[in-house]
Design brief:
Blueprint lengths: L3 H18 L5 H19 L7 H22 L4 H21 L1
Helix pairs in contact: 1-2, 1-3, 1-4, 2-4, 3-4
Length: 100
Amino acid sequence: MSDPLSERLERLKQGLDDLCAGGAEDRALFELRSEIARLSLAVIVSDLEEEDTSYLSATLELDRAIESIEAAKQDTASVTIAIRAAATSVALVEKALEAR
């Protein structure tokens, strides 16, 4: 069975890749994609539990970020908002990992 946090990180990464493919490449986007790759590996080797408050917060924030990216694919004016949402979600995943 796959880990929900890992699945959401992968969906977030794919959404950011799609934004890049659509011409939205910038430094913040590049750094986020790199951070997601690092966090994906960290989540795999971590012992985070789905019941942990930080885990739940991270998954909810990742869901919001994924929704923002989906909206940005339709409306290029929303790209900055989507990048901010992705950065926030990545920070929460980092916080969840540090809590362990």
